[in-house]
Amino acid sequence: VQLVESGGGSVQAGGSLRLSCVRSGPTHKSDYMAWFRQAPGKEREGVASINEYNATIYAPSVKGQFIISLDVAINTHYLQMDNLQPEDTAKYYCALCQWPCRGFLFEHQYGYWGQGTQVTVS
């Protein structure tokens, strides 16, 4: 399995970005794809997760601001981030939790990780 992120960058406060993560390798409908982020000096935290049944879990800090989605046909999941604020500045990672998985945003459940993409909000 390989995960490759793209879509990070620098934006001004109030702006939007969409991150993408392309997955290669075998899939299962109940796998969960997720986004995590790590800000400088802080621990990595879960942001959102989704499976092919469109079951989603969001961290309370991003609910209503970020939307996770999945395009099954191209094995890609996305994170639409709106109204970005400086506190959203972090390196964002996509991750895979293979079935059986309940999709909770705990790092140890995710066995595969992308290389990360930087998001900077000023």
Protein model, in words:
This protein is an all-beta fold and 122 residues long. Helix content is 0%, strand content 48%. The chain is built from no helices and eleven strands. A hairpin with a 6-residue loop joins β4 and β5.
Which percent band covers the strand fraction? over 45%
Low-confidence stretches: none
Q: Determine the N-to-C terminus distance.
A: 34 Å
Helix proportion range: under 10%
Number of helices: 0
Number of strands: 11
Question: What structural class do you assign from the helix and strand content?
Answer: mainly beta
Shape: globular
TL;DR of this structure?
The chain is built from no helices and 11 strands. It is mostly beta strands.
Descriptive terms for the model:
122 residues; mainly beta; 4-stranded antiparallel beta sheet; 11 strands; 0% helix; 48% strand
Task: Please outline the helices and strands.
Layout: E1 2-6, E2 9-11, E3 17-24, E4 32-38, E5 45-50, E6 56-58, E7 66-71, E8 76-81, E9 90-97, E10 112-113, E11 117-121
Parallel strand pairs: 2-11
Antiparallel strand pairs: 1-3, 3-8, 4-5, 4-9, 5-6, 7-8, 9-10, 9-11
